[in-house]
């Protein structure tokens, strides 16, 4: 990979895009999984653990994406996002469906917490571009500062890379300055090679973040997949000098998992990525576990879920 | 002479229905009453204890939600299985406590009977400890006892089976779940009891049994915020005040340790059952 100009050529037409994506080196699945497992054994204790917990809290996109979401639930989630616990700074963002963005905006006014909204026919991404655009515009007009779009996995898997590319680019144009996260739904992409291709495709099309999953498909975020995506943003930085972010989402429920991801961020992408601007956790129950482990560290005894809000 | 090499048992912890070694990899030697080596037992760490509490909390919903009748049946089944292992228990009790074989057998029989006694209580607790309250108003007011939650038990140090059964069975009878730290020097009957529990119908996680150093584990158990009650029966004397203080930090129910270990062969009363329940009172409007 030779530089920005070469990448412009790559996106000239569908044929060159395909040539580029299929020219990406194949993923050594065994090596990737072994490396992930190896990094996961690192022991993070005491002051480093407390730092990791605080950093992870600041990276949380506190998420509720249920059919049963109500304005009341979103407001209580926003209250938690503003002040997760005594002396704990706010989380990175609250992530909701577009129709609840206005509620979240009102509840988060002045807090500095971002409002992320899923869009583009979430979670399946199966609709026309027109509908997806309208969805995105509605979210942004309601006050979303970040948009989490889903790619059309059907198109990607049948090799219509150009279509996926154009969709991301169109949504990015509609977003303007609004942060765009591109959900690859790696659980449906079947192979690591596909994850690498989809990552590069999203980065080429202008996604500010690549995100693993919607949280509606299992498996969601796994360590090997996150590692692979971190490699992609690292290589992207190598080629273009730009920093792009990664957001694993779904399935990360414990502090242990979160810290393993942070170790991967540090080792695979680099220390520069250990910031909420470049790494996020899409999660709901993770926050409570982080808070619980934080109290365990500070109080010197094990904490329990009774001492934290149910959400 | 046979060339057969005997297969000796690896004594492990009982955590969430499984038999893991201690996370720390530690073991400690267990001796009989005369100081002769018996076995190496797993020496649980505070992380094993933490996992035990997680398992007990996870199992609480299902066990406390089971009908009292069902809990009674399940506990009676445990007694049936205990009966089948009488000889093994008697051997272990005799070796650990240094009592003659006949006495050990009597202690095992008493333990089985004690288990049956508590199994019979499951569906009577609500009747005895609950009430329909006479109130001055158009309300039907009633109180029901509910299990307190996860109970931390420091098992008696001397009576390795009968004592253990006498403190564990009431926890299960009320519908609570238990994290038990067994007798430090006499853990073998406890481990065998966990094997009985594992093959009975008691769901995994309802009883979690740790062997190890009581003084090392007790402070973590006493201070753990997700433990609702603490039985200090087997607590080392010099630690008792500190443990009670630590338990007060998260407002646990505390069963204080008697100054000397009681005579477990005496007929029990329902004090332990009463100590492990919370009373819920409901006021229901009646037709006006």
Automatic annotation (TrEMBL), chain A:
SUPFAM superfamilies: Aldolase. Its EC number is 4.1.2.4. It catalyses: 2-deoxy-D-ribose 5-phosphate = D-glyceraldehyde 3-phosphate + acetaldehyde. SMART domains: DeoC. InterPro entries: Aldolase_TIM, DeoC, DeoC/FbaB/LacD_aldolase. Keywords: Lyase, Schiff base. It comes from the Bacteria. Pfam families: DeoC. It is an enzyme of class 4 (lyase). Pathway: Carbohydrate degradation; 2-deoxy-D-ribose 1-phosphate degradation; D-glyceraldehyde 3-phosphate and acetaldehyde from 2-deoxy-alpha-D-ribose 1-phosphate: step 2/2. Belongs to the DeoC/FbaB aldolase family. DeoC type 2 subfamily. This is Deoxyribose-phosphate aldolase. It comes from Actinokineospora diospyrosa. The lineage of its organism: Bacteria, Bacillati, Actinomycetota, Actinomycetes, Pseudonocardiales.
TrEMBL record, chain B:
Keywords: Oxidoreductase. InterPro entries: Ald_DH/histidinol_DH, Ald_DH_N, Aldehyde_DH_dom. Gene3D superfamilies: Aldehyde Dehydrogenase, Chain A, domain 1 (3.40.605.10). It comes from the Bacteria. It holds the Pfam family Aldedh. Residues 29-254 form the Aldehyde dehydrogenase domain. This is Aldehyde dehydrogenase family protein. It comes from Actinokineospora diospyrosa.
């Amino acid at each position: 990979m030779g530089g920005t100009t070469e990448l412009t050529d790559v996106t000239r037409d569908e044929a060159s895009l395909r040539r580029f994506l299929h020219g990406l080196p194949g993923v050594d699945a065994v090596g990737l999984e072994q490396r992930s497992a190896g990094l996961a054994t690192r022991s993070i204790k005491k002051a480093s653990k407390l730092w990791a917990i605080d950093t992870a809290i600041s990276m949380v996109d506190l998420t509720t994406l249920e059919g049963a979401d109500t304005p009341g639930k979103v407001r209580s989630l926003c209250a938690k996002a503003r002040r997760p616990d005594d002396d704990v700074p706010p989380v990175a963002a609250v992530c909701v469906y577009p129709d609840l963005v206005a509620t979240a905006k009102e509840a988060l006014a002045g807090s500095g917490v971002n409002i992320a909204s899923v869009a583009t026919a979430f979670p399946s991404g199966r609709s026309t571009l027109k509908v997806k655009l309208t969805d995105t515009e509605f979210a942004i007009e309601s006050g979303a500062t970040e948009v989490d779009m889903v790619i059309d996995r059907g198109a990607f898997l049948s090799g219509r890379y150009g279509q996926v590319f154009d969709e991301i680019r169109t949504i990015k144009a509609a977003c303007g300055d609004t942060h765009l996260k591109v959900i690859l739904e790696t659980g449906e992409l079947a192979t690591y090679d596909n994850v690498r291709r989809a990552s590069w495709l999203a980065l080429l099309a202008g996604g500010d973040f690549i995100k693993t999953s919607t949280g509606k498909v299992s498996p969601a975020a796994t360590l090997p997949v996150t590692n692979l995506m971190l490699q992609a943003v690292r290589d992207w930085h190598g080629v273009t000098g730009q920093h792009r972010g990664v957001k694993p989402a779904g399935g990360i429920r414990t502090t242990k998992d979160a810290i393993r991801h942070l170790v991967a961020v540090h080792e695979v992408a680099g220390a520069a990525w250990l910031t909420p601007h470049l790494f996020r956790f899409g999660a709901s129950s993770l926050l409570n576990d982080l808070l619980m482990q934080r109290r365990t560290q500070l109080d010197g005894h094990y904490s329990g879920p009774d001492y934290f809000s149910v959400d | 002479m046979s060339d057969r090499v005997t297969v000796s048992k690896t004594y492990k912890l009982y955590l969430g229905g499984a038999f893991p070694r201690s996370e720390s990899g530690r073991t400690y030697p267990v001796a009989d009453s005369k100081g002769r080596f018996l076995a190496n037992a797993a020496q649980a760490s505070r992380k094993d204890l933490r996992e035990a509490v997680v398992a007990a909390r996870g199992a609480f919903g299902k066990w406390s939600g089971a009908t009292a009748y069902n809990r009674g049946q399940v506990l009676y089944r445990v007694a049936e299985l205990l009966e089948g292992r009488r000889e093994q228990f008697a051997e272990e009790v005799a070796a650990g406590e240094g009592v003659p074989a006949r006495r050990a057998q009597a202690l095992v029989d008493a333990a089985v009977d004690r288990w049956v006694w508590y199994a019979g209580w499951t569906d009577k607790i609500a009747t005895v400890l609950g009430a329909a309250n006479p109130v001055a108003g158009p309300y039907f007011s009633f109180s029901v006892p509910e299990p307190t939650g996860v109970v931390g038990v420091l098992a008696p140090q001397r009576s390795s089976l009968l004592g253990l059964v006498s403190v564990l069975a009431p926890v299960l009878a009320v519908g609570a779940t238990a994290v038990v730290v067994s007798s430090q020097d006499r853990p073998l009957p406890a481990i065998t009891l966990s094997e009985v529990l594992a093959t009975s119908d008691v769901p995994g996680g309802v009883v979690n049994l740790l062997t190890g150093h009581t003084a090392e584990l007790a402070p973590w158990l006493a201070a753990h915020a997700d433990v609702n009650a603490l039985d200090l029966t087997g607590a080392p004397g010099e630690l008792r005040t500190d443990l009670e203080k630590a338990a007060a930090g998260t407002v646990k129910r505390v069963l204080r340790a008697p100054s000397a270990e009681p005579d477990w062969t005496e007929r029990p009363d329902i004090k332990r059952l009463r100590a492990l329940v919370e009373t819920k009172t409901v006021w229901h409007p009646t037709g006006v």
